[in-house]
Amino acid sequence: MSRRKRRANRAVLGGLCLMAAALCASSMGFAQRATTAAAIAGFVLLMYGVHLGWSVFYDSESDGPPS
């Protein structure tokens, strides 16, 4: 479980950094398509990390044996 949590954290932080880099690059006037593609890739990476984080939270513990 800790591996999935660590992977989720990396994906979220990587996605945020990629989106921030795309925002900075687009403000400096770099290629529009490249910055748009980088922002979309960052958003997808962020959503992947959120999905992993949710699965870590959801599968964290069982409620015990069925009654």
TrEMBL record:
The keyword Transmembrane helix applies. The keyword Membrane applies. Keywords: Membrane, Signal, Transmembrane, Transmembrane helix. The chain crosses the membrane at residues 39-58. Residues 1-31 form the signal peptide. This is Uncharacterized protein. The lineage of its organism: Bacteria, Bacillati, Actinomycetota, Actinomycetes, Propionibacteriales.
